[in-house]
Amino acid sequence: MSTARDCAKIWESRESALKFWNMSKENRGRVEETIAGTEITPESRVLDIGSGPGTLAIPFARRVAHVTVVEPAEGMLSVLREKMAEECVDNIDVVQKRWEDVNVADDLDPPYDVVIASFSLGMPDIRAAIEKMIAAAATGGHIYLYHFAGETHWDRDCRDLWPRLHGKEYTPGPKSDVLYNVLYQMGIYPHVRTFRLQHSQRFVSMEEAMEHFRHQYRISTAEQEAIVWEHLGRVLKEENGGFSLPASSIRVKIWWEKESREDGLAES
User: Fold this and answer.
1) Is-contact 175 249, C-beta < 8 A?
2) In the chain, N or C terminus with fewer CB closer than 10 Å?
């Protein structure tokens, strides 16, 4: 069983979600590149799975006819609704569920010209998740998946910390090689592009950083807190009166066009 993070729980708090939004604003170029890399027109309908606070959904909404977001975390949705109001965006529908709990016919309004899941592929059954994406997509529409390749910076930290925190080895979640193999077994041979992303998380204080990582490292005791506090003291860099955690990771974009032969995959 994977000891990887429960992403929905990490982003339940409004404070964490707002921090995620602000971090995405610092990396506006990646957002614009992601949107430019999709096949959209002003008439397109987009399904954003694991939308977070609207990092992609709000820019998409300015360019297309309609966006549906699927996001389980209340903190993320609180920020999404706030930013929609601030930016006068009203063509986004919200489904507050995990993707694995979504019923395409009952919860969504298919078909969608673009289905995108950007670093939100933490579903326990990835084949079932992909089949549901295919069911929601229009024939001739495109499905875009963004995921990680190789060991991430939090995998490296957890590999070191997990035995001391929890008395067992850390098992990371599946990466893009598993995702590609699942697609291959489904008879889908997608386009693949690999790229490196440099990014930083910023905190006004060590205390704020500690609160942010409390869920990630599943801290419940004073001893665990002391271990993580010492770790943060080593890895955080002082910057502009606060702290930052610089990181670099290899990401993968996987995408394909839905063909008519895929229509029956969800029922197979």
Assistant:
1) no
2) N
The first and second tokens of residue 147, run together, are 């995921």
Structure tokens that stand for 198 in this block: 């440099």
| Angstrom distance (rounded) from CA 53 to CA 62 | 16
114 falls within a domain: yes
CA-CA distance, 182 to 228, in Å (whole number)? 36
Q: pLDDT tens for residues 129-153? A: 999 999 999 999 999 999 999 989 8
Amino acid at site 163: P
Are 199 and 251 a contacting pair, CB within 8 Å? no
**Dist CA 174 CA 3 (whole Å):** 11
The answer to whether 137 and 258 have CB atoms below 8 angstroms apart is: yes
Question: What HEC string does 226-239 produce?
Answer: HHHHHHHHHHCEEE
Read off the CATH number of the domain in which 262 is found. Answer: 3.40.50.150
Taking the C-alpha atoms of residue 12 and residue 74, their distance in angstroms, rounded to an integer, is 5
The strand pairing partners of 200, in sequence order, are 246
The length of the chain is 268
- For residue 226, tell me if it sits in a domain: no
pLDDT score of 107 more than 70: yes
Tell me if 223 is assigned to some domain: no
Q: What's the pTM value of the predicted model, to 2 decimals?
A: 0.87
User: Which band of pLDDT confidence, cut at 50, 70 and 90, is reported for residue 12?
Assistant: low
